[in-house]
Design a protein that fits this description.
Length: 150
């Protein structure tokens, strides 16, 4: 019972396996894109204020310290659920005022604590940034982050 694997058989196994796993890879990519397009996106609710808030996020390089939807630096808290942490689902106006107060109080000057810089944002800028953070909290992120603390 000593059969040898011939070159031809080895080549067929290689090409067959490659095609099989390529087909699986393509199917998973298509499934991922369809899921993103149909389930987790809330692009239909984009407003000019949200777009301006996203531009502020990029202009001030918030991602250099914070993560949002798991992307970014891990120096400061995850912000995709900051709207919920400030009570935005139950009290939207209270959450908005709380976030504005948070931004205005930075940096706190507490010794030994990581501090967010003061960006001196206008009221319009703050509203736009908060609208962007609210919008990100409404994306179906499949229970990310895993803790409420971010």
């Amino acid at each position: 019972m000593s059969e040898r694997l011939t070159k031809s058989a080895a080549r067929n196994i290689f090409y067959g396996g490659t095609l099989f796993f390529l087909a699986i890879f393509i199917a998973l990519v298509v499934q991922s894109h369809l899921y993103i397009l149909n389930v987790s996106s809330n692009n239909d609710r984009l407003t000019e204020s949200i777009i301006r808030g996203k531009r502020l996020w990029e202009k001030n390089a918030c991602i250099d310290c914070h993560t949002i939807m798991g992307e970014g630096a891990y120096f400061a808290p995850e912000l995709s659920n900051v709207w919920d942490r400030f009570g935005g689902k139950d009290d939207p106006e209270g959450a908005r005022e709380g976030l504005k107060g948070w931004f205005a109080a930075m940096p706190t000057g507490i010794e030994g604590r990581r501090q967010m810089p003061q960006f001196n944002l206008s009221d319009q800028d703050l509203d736009d940034l908060i609208d962007f953070l609210k919008w990100t909290s409404e994306i179906d992120d499949q229970n990310w982050p895993p803790t409420d603390a971010g």
